[in-house]
Design a protein that fits this description.
elongated; 3 helices; 45% helix; mainly alpha
Length: 92
């Protein structure tokens, strides 16, 4: 039996419509060194809302940042394969 274990083969579980927003939050935090409150204020000034239409607060900006960074870290991690319980038979 050959067992391959990797998280890289999982389907994309991040909502496609929220990716640009999450990427913008990550860029504002990492590149511009903005605080989450400042990020929320900028997004609200641009008319960007949360998934259900609510205003974005600092907590929401932090949640977007944290989840997107975790998602990107998981997707960019090196793929590791585990082979277990393998039997090799001689060629005939």
């Amino acid at each position: 039996m050959l067992t391959l274990v990797t998280a890289a083969l999982l389907p994309n579980s991040y909502p496609a419509d929220r990716e640009p927003l999450a990427d913008a939050v990550v860029a504002m935090r990492d590149s511009d060194n903005l605080q989450y409150k400042q990020i929320a204020h900028l997004l609200n000034a641009r008319g960007i809302t949360g998934a259900r239409g609510a205003r974005i607060g600092a907590e929401h900006a932090f949640a977007l940042y944290k989840k997107r960074k975790a998602y990107l870290a998981k997707r960019t991690a090196p793929i590791q394969f585990t082979i277990s319980e393998m039997t090799v038979y001689p060629a005939e």
